[in-house]
Amino acid sequence: MNTSALAARRWLPRLLLACSVLALGACAPLERQPNEYQVGRSRLNLPAGDWEDLGTTDTVYPLPSQPGGSIALQARTLVLHGPKKEVLAVLRVQTNRGNFEREDVLWTGNCPRQQGMDVEDARSGSNVRVDCLRMKRWADGAWMDKYQSEWAQWLAGRKLAPLQPASYISYRYGMDRGALVVVDAWVVQNLLRPPTRNNHEFLVAGRPAKAWTEALAQAARQSTGMMDGTFTIPPFPVPAGPRS
């Protein structure tokens, strides 16, 4: 046996061991980070803050294009508390319970317009996806009871509502094979709208909120293409702190 063959025999066990260690490392779950929660197939990462986890529930999303058809989802609701334990934000995220194993899904749901609500429908009439971002800048309890009655009643049963004034943001994104993420956020405006001291600051004060909602939508879209469903909620434009 030549020198090359002997060297190969000597190093082969070590090489196999090294490959095994690398393979196990690649398969090992990533270490859980602070403010990270699992919801369905997604790893939900929250911005810094005092978050309270209200747990998960199993839900379904009906498919109007398929009578009797639905997509199995899991929902997780979390509450952001302020320095005095006041409610600053309530966030609910719903995602697929497992990976996408359906036939192609036709999305017939619309992105409804409503007076006083900013609406961005990026699907442009397509039936292969849904991409609906909606924001109500002034969403008090009465408005929530009327237009988001199911979630509002669920929150009312737990005596949860952000300080007023607050905004409501919703986003739905669905793709072929049943990829779906649904986000609802009820957020005190102090986190979305910076203080204003003059006319110019007042006129541009709404821009951070718009930028945050668009960043939220982008993160939700990206989560459907991630192997582990990583969904990183962007930091609020204004850090949580004592109310003036």
UniProtKB/TrEMBL annotation:
It comes from the Bacteria. Residues 1-25 form the signal peptide. Keywords: Signal. This is Group 4 capsule polysaccharide lipoprotein gfcB, YjbF.
